[in-house]
Design a protein that fits this description.
Length: about 90
């Protein structure tokens, strides 16, 4: 009886890990498609990488890169906005 519950638990864990990876890869693929086409790539790529980073070390590295690029872009946009806002007419 204990063996069968242990088997179900490990099988459930394997299915869960597979589903997380599958959904993560799907979100990353959608994000990459939305880079070329108009769409919310800025949402799908980090979400997919976050899901994949739960299980894969390489995804953690790419997620950190993505976060760094997004943060730097936000800082640059803030600077541009402040220059535009306080420009002399």
């Amino acid at each position: 009886m204990q063996q069968s519950t242990l088997r179900w638990k490990t099988m459930g864990r394997a299915i869960k890990n597979t589903l997380i990876s599958l959904v993560g890869f799907i979100f990353v693929a959608i994000g990459l498609i939305f880079i070329l086409l108009p769409g919310p790539a800025i949402l799908f790529l980090p979400l997919g990488l976050a899901l994949l980073s739960l299980q894969h070390e390489w995804a953690k590295v790419w997620l950190k890169r993505c976060q760094r690029l997004m943060r730097n872009s936000a800082v640059q946009l803030d600077k541009m906005w402040l220059r535009f806002k306080y420009r002399k007419p």
